[in-house]
Amino acid sequence: xxQLSRRQLLAAGLGVAGSLAGGGLSGSLWGTLxxxxxxxxxxxxxxxxxxxxxxxxxxxxxxxxxxxGSGGRQAMAVAxxxxxxxxxxxxxxxxxxxxxxxxxxxxxxxxxxxxxxxRPLIDAGVRxxxxxxxxxxxxxxxxxxxxxxxxxxxLLGTPARNYTTSHGPVDFFYLDSSAPGLFGEDSTVQxxxxxxxxxxxxxxxxxxxxxxxxxxxGSHGSTxxxxxxxxxxxxxxxxxxxxxxxxxxxxxxxxxxxxTHVVSGGGCKTTPVxxxxxxxxxxxxxxxxxxxxxxxxxxxxxxxxxxxLLDRFQLRAREGR
Length: 321
Hints:
The chain has 321 residues and is α/β, with parallel strands linked by helices. Helix content is 29%, strand content 22%.
C-alpha cells in the first residue's frame, strides 16, 4: 500500500470527518486530525465600506496572518475577526505569511480556503500579498508542492517567490524561506537580492515577511540555519520587523540585534508554544495581527478570534539607516 503524504492523509480525513465517531481510526490518526480545523464554518455576513482606509507617506494600517488554509470553522472565525477589525480601523493590505491551503489542491480549494473566508475584505478592495509557505513539505519543496506554490502565486497575482512592495512609509520584503530559497544551491541568489533590496530601501520602515520563523518557541521551533543565513543581513540593513507563520501560535520576540520577530501562525489552528530567552510574549491562540504605522511609531495588536487583545507592542523606527 503506498504511503500517504500528510496532505493526502488530511484530505482523506476531511472526507470522513462526519463519521469519525465510529472509532475506526488509530490513535495517531486521531491525534493528527484532532489538531486540524476540519469542521465546516460559515462565512461572515458582513458588508464593509470599500476603500475606507487612509494611506499617506507617513501613515499605513495593515493586517498580517499566517496558516489560514483549512476553510473550516476556525479559519472562518479568524477571517471574520479580521473583517470586524477592518470595521474598527480600516486597512488596505493583508500580508499573508504562508500556507494558504491545506487538505488538497489550491486549484480545487481556492474558493473554500481564500475567497469565502476573506470575501468581506476582498469586496472592500483590500490587497493581499503572499509570503509562500511550505504546505506539508517541511523546508524541502517536492515537485507537487512547487506546483502548488506556482498555482498560489498565479491565483493571488503574486509577482514572484521573492519580491518587494512599498505602501506609505513601509517597504515590505517577501522571501521564499524554504530550502530552495534560503538553504539550497541557489540560496545565495535570494540572499544577495535581499541584501541589495534592503540597502536600496529609503523608506522609514523595513518589514520582512517569510513563512518559516527565524526565532520560535513552538512545535517546529526556530528554523535551522536561518539565524546564520538571514540574521546578519537583517541586522546590517536595520530591519525593523520580521513577520512569519509556520508555527501555529503567536509569539513576539524581544529585539534581536535590533530586529523584532513576530510569529503569527494562528490563522486556523493552534499548536503549543513555550518560551525562550528571546520571547517577550507568546500564546497558543487563533489570532491575527493588526498594525498601525504613524510617522516613526509602529503599533501592533495581536487580536484573538474572539476579539480579545492578546498582545500590544510599539516600535520606533530604526535610525542610522
